[in-house]
Structures are given as C-alpha cells and as structure tokens.
Amino acid sequence: MEKISANRIFYGSQEVWTHASAACACDMTFGIFLPPQAADTKVPVLYWLSGLTCTHENFVTKAGAQRVAAELGIAIVMPDTSPRGVDLPGEDDSYDFGSGAGFYLNATQSPWAQHYRMYDYVVDELPALVNEHFPVDGGRVSISGHSMGGHGALTIALKNPQRYRSVSAFSPIVAPTRCPWGQKAFAGYLGDDKSAWQQYDATELVQQQTFPGEILIDQGSQDEFLREQLKPELFQRACRDAGQPLQLRMQDGYDHSYYFIATFIEEHLRFHAQALR
Amino acid sequence: MEKISANRIFYGSQEVWTHASAACACDMTFGIFLPPQAADTKVPVLYWLSGLTCTHENFVTKAGAQRVAAELGIAIVMPDTSPRGVDLPGEDDSYDFGSGAGFYLNATQSPWAQHYRMYDYVVDELPALVNEHFPVDGGRVSISGHSMGGHGALTIALKNPQRYRSVSAFSPIVAPTRCPWGQKAFAGYLGDDKSAWQQYDATELVQQQTFPGEILIDQGSQDEFLREQLKPELFQRACRDAGQPLQLRMQDGYDHSYYFIATFIEEHLRFHAQALR
Prior knowledge:
2 copies of one chain form a homodimer.
Chain A: E1 2-9, E2 12-21, E3 26-34, E4 43-49, H1 57-62, H2 66-72, E5 75-79, H3 118-133, E6 136-145, H4 148-159, E7 168-170, H5 180-190, H6 194-197, H7 202-205, E8 215-220, H8 226-230, H9 232-242, E9 246-251, H10 258-276
Parallel strand pairs in A: 4-5, 4-6, 7-8, 8-9
Antiparallel strand pairs in A: 1-2, 2-3, 3-5
C-alpha cells in the first residue's frame, strides 16, 4: 500500500492509495475519506461505486460528499471502475467496455478473465484491505453508486445482503441484460450464455432474493440515458412483485451528471447513516 | 452569447456561456450559477475569480458552492482566468504566465496588451453582459477568489469600493510586487517601471484607500505556497496601519487545494449574503 495523497477537508482527511491487487492482477488505486471522528474511534463505512469512464477521482472532487460524511462520522471508500494498464487488446477502444467499464463482475471470457474481476475486488479484497489499514468498523458497511456503479451497488447488495446494512443508487443500470450498455459488456466479459448474465442483473436478482431494508434510488427525469439504458420501471415492477421495499424518486429536471449527484448525496448519506448506527 | 451547457443543480441552473469579448479581443467563456429564486426575481451576484491554471470550470465542479448559493438566493459568476487561443508567442510555456495566468490586470507591454486585459473584462465588460442577459441585480455585487484570484478580488474591490458590497479571499497573493509569481507576471505584462506595479498590489492599495467593510481571508496553515508566495502577514500589517478591518483566519492543517475552498466556501457565502441583503 502506498499513499498517493492526503488533503485536509472538512476537518477530516481525503486520501488516495495504490496497492497491488490479487483479484485484478494489477495495481489498483482507490480514494478514502476519513471523517474527523476516525481519529478517536472506528467509524462505519460507505462504498461508492462510480460509473462509466470514471476513476476513483470523480466522486472525490465533484460530489461534495465529505461535508455530510464528516458531520455523520462515516468513512467513504471510492474504488476505481476497472483494472488499469493491463494492456489487453481493445481495452481502451470504447468508453463502455474495458478500461473504465469493469461493470463490477468477474469476467469469464479470455482475455478479460485474467484481470477484470471487479466483483471480487469490491466485495472481498478491498474491504479486507480497508478494514486492516484504516480505523473503520467492518461490521457497519453500506454501498451506493451511480449508473454502472448503481448497477454494481444493487447487484452486490442483493447477492450479499448480510454484508451491507443499506443500499442506494443514483441513475442505476437496473436491467443490464435488457439494455445496450449491459448487453455489450456482458457478451464481452461473460460470453453468450445468457444464464450467466442473470447473476449480475439487479432486476433478475431481486426476484430470487430480496434485500432486508428499503432500497433508495434517485433518477433524474431529464437523464439522457433514461429510456434506452436505465429503465428504472423494470426494477420497480420486479421489486413490487418480489415484495422488495423500494423508494424510487424521479427528480424533475435533473440529468445524468455529477450536478445531480451533488444535489441529492446528502439525503443518501443520511439514509445510510440511519442503517449504520 | 452562446449557451454551451445548462445543468440542473440544487433546484437552480449551472450554465456555461461563450461570447465575443471586446476587452480581450477573443472569445471568452464563463460559468454562471442561477439559484432557484432567479426564476421569480433579480438576485444579488458574487463574482468568483479563480487561480493559476484554472478555467471557468474548476470552481463550478469542485467547490460545492451551489448548495449554499441556492439556499441564500445568490448568483455566482465564474470567469476564465485569461484570454484563450490568441496564439501569442510563449503564451503556453509556463503555468504562471500567459494562458491561465492573466492576473486580473490590463497589460501594457507588447504583445500582451492586445488581449490580456482581464481587469477591464472582470470589472466592466462581464458585469454589463451579465446584468443585461440574466436576472441579477447589478446593484448588489460582491467578489471573492482564490490565490491569483484572491489577488484579483482584493485589488478590484480596493480600486472600486463603490461597486462591491463585500470582498473575501482564499489563500490570496496579497503582495504580488514582493513574491516570485507576481514579479514574473508584472514584469511581463507591465514592464520594468515598478510604479505601474503598485496599482495591482493589494498591500500597496490598502494604504491609499480602504474598503468600506471588513475583509475576510481564509488561509491554510499547510499551504505549500504560504511563505514564498502568499505572505498574508504583509497585508495584515498594511491593513492595521491603514485602519482597514480584516478578518484573517489561519486554518490549521489545510493546503492550497479546492478541498480547502470546499470546506470554507459556505462561511464566505454567508459573509457575502449579509452584505448583499
């Protein structure tokens, strides 16, 4: 583990660290915000999963989350969105596959299977590392994310309900097996067997196992990806059928950007703080 | 005037506009945040001047100012830090002179004098444009900025006390005639006659004319530029000698970054809101 930077913000510390990842077989970089309370005690922790094209940095600089996290005494861990620098053929050719587009799954297809194991990285390797090196309480963990990262948060929470106290998402890809982004990624990472796709589709997963607690989703009504890629109504219907409590809020006039996230991140942090007490 | 973008944030609108500038003899880009109150009434306006290497964009995405500005009903105008794309020789050779380093002055030396007239742009041209095209009250105006932009805010307010209700700064260059950044810029833009330099030095200006109201400055104690470039003690002494009320706050552990600005921007906005009522 190597500390890349540490900056004081809201009486806490915003840090960036790099480490050798066994899951991804490359060096990985993540951001972590430690609130001032972490100087004296172990604090609960929120994992934030970012969307397509992002690194660990976008949420750190643009969401304005540190202010409320400092008030509530919650650490935030912000992993990267894919392995980096592993030089696979075609890795950097498109914004929605390869670098910056790991989709929080374990790839099974060559050559991706060697490195693209973001599911294991986010669910197992990174929390073990964080719990060992930082003053966080590994028993009080929640998860959230945006777009592809909202897909990650929902699928990871639904597959591991015992590990997360709460889950929320902004503008999530809720049904990747039924939208172009997900179909392209899943075909590339998981191959043509569509039964393998379903284990990474929140709308499929919630029909098999619900999450113990209400799921919070914010979605902008002017989101340019709403109709073709995001389709929250599919998840809403599946939750209703499965008896999964869901608060889906359509936010009037907001788009897919970090301006939307910045506006509502405070409400998400307070939602998670209730569950992390 | 051409609208480049508009994004909803905190129930207001974050917009970016480009226009032909007479002062700078090139196209100029600025950001403007319009709070929700601007839908019904003319709102007061804060001008924010950014530091070296910045464009109009840094404060827009990193400061988290829109939340409190929306609550207080204050518009924020965020100009660029220099002319752009005017192709002067050497313009892009260094981070502290030329592009991104206009120093909010009117250059007198060739070839800079043709375009580098950020003082006229910020004091006259841009406010006239903003007052004409947006629902702002041109009689209720305040100014703030960071580093080179803190220098801009202080000098502009001291030279035009009738135009601004209040002035504040983060980590400002308070005595450019006595630090390497300022000496390099002033020699290039204004030539060797040091009497011309004094009209753009806040520590010199405050000894000639005070500002009607307390000046607020926040400075991080771990700022890497504190001792060589910023030297707030010089301005503090000049204010004391001149009878200028000054609140200079040394903030323990903070550096020169936007993490510092994000932490304290709320207090600056509330300081300006008092004066803008």
